[in-house]
Amino acid sequence: MNSDMHADQLFPAEEGPAPGQGRGSRSDVLEMLRAADHPLGVREVAQRTGLHQNTARFHLEALAKSGLATRETQDRQTPGRPRVGYRATTRATIGGRRRYRLLSEMLATLIAGTMPEPGMAAEEAGREWGEYLTEQPPPYQRLTADEALAKLTSTLGELGFAPELAGDGDSGRYRVNLRQCPFREVAQQHRQVVCALHLGLMRGGLSRMRAPVTADRLEPFVEPGLCVARLSVSALPAATRRWPAPRPARPPG
Fold first, then answer.
1. Cα(42)–Cα(84) distance, integer angstroms
2. How much of the chain, in percent, has pLDDT values that exceed 90?
3. Most distant pair of Cα atoms in the chain: their distance
4. I need a labelling partner for 82 at 20 to 30 A (CA). Which of 91, 113, 242, 250 fits?
């Protein structure tokens, strides 16, 4: 840990959502459960908040594990898996102080101090989470670069990065201005880990979409409150299925 970091820096009260970020935080999901008169499923929460279903499920499961919500299995009238709904518990209130910054500082220090290639390990973890949080297109459906960039910035917005897309479609080069870093203080101390994680997050999401876009690099803190991701349009990903070669014709007779 950086010796210049004092206890009052590691134990601040957790900040709320940045102004203008809109709905989609875990506290928003909890408030939705508390206001509902029936258990809400993942799809319903995702539709109401505009979150991706995997992101909604991630928040709901976290609320259930912390005791702020309960899972209820409901019978279906049609064949299929039982529907799982979530209901807020009577103790469902988000209060008290959180130590997420301390936790992230500890984990970043662990990765930086013990991994032989901390940047590569962090990027790989980011790729895995980026793929998990991104919806995959149907088979054989190809997204355009504009569609993929819109989905990517939407995911980054849900995660609290306050992204702004800019670029020149003719040149095929884009930039995403990240005005809000959810882990800014930790990233300033451990750029090799946190920024690589964020780059991997974008690369994993684009890979999941089979997007014709490449996240080339992430430029951290080009200004005190700004990081810039550089992206470029690439060739369409090659098809993963290889059709069998036609069998040679048998000789007559």
1. 8
2. 45
3. 89
4. 91
Which two structure tokens, joined as six digits, stand for 28?
């928003």
How far from 90 is each of 30, 34, 65, 72, CA to CA, in Å?
12, 9, 15, 15
- Spatial CA neighbour of 5 closest among 84, 77, 90, 105: 105
Task: For residue range 222-253, list pLDDT tens digits in order.
Answer: 998 899 999 999 865 544 444 455 566 666 65
Q: Which whole-number Å values give the CA distances from 126 to 51, 106, 122, 208, in the listed order? A: 19, 18, 6, 13
d(CA 229, CA 67): 37
Number of Cβ within a 10 Å radius of residue 32: 19
What's the CA gap between 193 and 99, in Å, rounded?
19
Query: Residue 226: which residues within 8 A CB-CB, separation 6 or more?
Result: 177, 178, 179
Report yes or no: 167 and 174 within 8 Å, Cβ to Cβ.
yes
Tokens read off for 117: 């290639």
Domains and CATH numbers, the chain: 22-88 (1.10.10.10), 100-233 (3.30.1380.20)
Residue tagged 């499920």 (tokens): 57
CA-nearest of 164, 124, 170 to 145 is: 170
